[in-house]
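Lay summary. Proteins are chains of building blocks that fold into shapes, and those shapes determine what they do. In this project we predict the shape from the chain. Here is one chain we studied, written as its sequence of building blocks.
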Amino acid sequence: RSAALLFAACSSDEAVQVNKGNEISFRANLAKATRAADMTLNNLSEFNVTAINQNQGTTFFSNETFTRNGNNYTHVGDKIWWPETDALNFYAYAPTSSAQYQYVDYKTFNVTPSTSVDAQLDLIYANTNGKTQAADKNGVALNFRHTESKIQVRVYNSEKNVTVQVSGWKIAHVSPAAKFAYINNNTDVKNFTTLSFESWTNWAEATEATQYIADNTTLFFEGVQETPVAMDKQMILVPQQLQGFSPKDQVQELDGSYIAVKILVKNKADGTVLYGGTEGKWCLWPISTKWEPGKLYTYVIDVCKGYNEEKDPILNEIKFVDVTIDDWDAQPEINLGASNL
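And here is the predicted shape, written in a compact code that computers can read:
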């Protein structure tokens, strides 16, 4: 969910840049936090902002940090003042620094999500244009948007005669990194600029070596589990167009993207292992989704309907083929005439 921020203007006599009287600061409307990795107004302690003079095309200030101060965000260091008449375009992002992205300029970041799911961050970005002291000194709306894609998994079981243990999930064979270069050519109904898939380029090659693994509190399904159960963790990854693998029974076999769930399946009647050995094995489902920025994708998975790592179905139903019935074996006629009485 997008986070809404407000620029606010405060009275002061300390002149730093141009006009004394209105310091550029920020006031936030707080939103409810969801997952720990999400950037929300509850955990947004600071963000960086660049201001471009719309009239002159010059940089008014560059990559300056604003920190939460009560209900406001104020500049770290000397105060920054509104220009008297010129309009400003504001570009902001958070978190202000991370090993998961390389800051190139105020519009451009090279993003590499952590392979540790618990450490993955949510890079958010905001832009609003044409703001002036006269019109906006009492509050400039700034709407942060999520630049990446979020993925979650829910699982259920449609098989009656099995028990299933589920102990984790992963995403594999996806691009591990890409470049985000903001394009501000779309606006929503509130005239906020929106993020587009076209802002993402330069994807690193997707290979089997790229795997994001999420542990999970072990789930047990005793027979049919109709209501999907959410896996514990969510992932935040770079937007991209996925190409799923093709199973062995298809004409053209392709390697490609997939979601896998670690499962152990047993026969409900006597406990015989049907799939998963002693500790569970990965069960795969190909995915060919186009992940777009700011969107949450929920994959609902029937845990016994996937493929093993050789891309064959994990369960093979006992069935009989080439069923025939022999013709009667005709014997020589037996004559029971009167002479045989």
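What the prediction tells us: The mean pLDDT is 86.
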